[in-house]
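Lab manual, section 2.4: Encoding a predicted structure.

Procedure: take the sequence of the chain (79 residues), apply the prediction step described in section 2.3, and record the output as structure tokens. A sample record is shown.
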Amino acid sequence: MKLMVLGAFGKSGQMIVKEAEKRGHEVIAVAHRKHDDVDFKNELIKNTVDLTGPDLTGVDAVIDAIRSFLKGHDLSSSN
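Recorded output:
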């Protein structure tokens, strides 16, 4: 199965991509910017709102692993 993971460079996205590849799926890892500390076999650096039909050609499923960003809020705390 060919999967597209949005937000692939985040914590959840990285785990989803790695697990999907481990299970034999072809994965397109999508993010709005490249992260130097993470490399995937198949990356697409593009803002998700700019994705077009050709970007999705042959994709069987899209997985959204994007989290919202709230400036000034630490989402990792348990507050």
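Check your result against the sample. The helical segments are 11-22.
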